[in-house]
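Chapter review: from sequence to fold.
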Amino acid sequence: MKHFIFPLACFFLFFITANVLHAQKKAQKPNFIIILADDLGYGDVGFTGSSQIKTPNINALAEQGIIFTQGYVSAPVCGPSRAGLMTGRNQVTFGFDNNPIVDLPQFDKNYVGLPLEIKTVAKRLDDLG
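The token string follows.
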């Protein structure tokens, strides 16, 4: 189910697009909402057809925003896909192309996760005020 992470993140990025467009019309700084749910399938929310899982707030956001129905993972495993989403970059360009295996004796735990010199989308937005 990990291969659903990046497509679902893209799927929920319609909230961001709607907020950006709305804020630009008002000449205000935009608000961003990213909903990232691990192991959530396309049909697991109400506005895509689920009757088992109640998602009234997400459904309301979907009615007011833009829905992306096709998304593709940038990696076959979750860590690199999340790194790509968090940075807006292809994670292979900064060496995050596999999930770290932290339980091996030769693995250096100082290098687990996103490299410190890589800016995230949040940091870039913070730099813009």
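Two observations follow directly from the output. The two ends are 37 Å apart (CA to CA). The chain has two domains: 1-73, 74-129.
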